[in-house]
Amino acid sequence: MAVTCSDILKLVAAFILPPLGVFLEKGTCDKDFWIDVLLTILGWLPGCATF
């Protein structure tokens, strides 16, 4: 399977902001998107509390 330009965009988006990568792959705000948003927030908050 060939890697296209849109695949590279999705990879970069998922690395920078994971919910955006899920949204670009699925195309809708379904339960997978909201689970990813919740997990991103839960992972970000403990990281901020250590500073």
From TrEMBL:
Q: Which family does it belong to?
A: Belongs to the UPF0057 (PMP3) family.
Q: Which InterPro entries does the UniProt entry name for this protein?
A: PMP3
Provide a GO CC annotation, any one.
membrane
Q: Which gene encodes it?
A: PMP3
- The protein's name is Plasma membrane proteolipid Pmp3
Q: What keyword terms does UniProt attach to this protein? A: Membrane, Transmembrane, Transmembrane helix
Q: Which cell locations does it reside in? A: Membrane
Q: Key word Membrane present in the record?
A: yes
The answer to whether keyword Transmembrane helix applies is: yes
Q: Which organism is it from?
A: Coccomyxa viridis
**Alphabetical list of PROSITE patterns matching this protein:** UPF0057
Where does this chain mainly localize? Answer: membrane
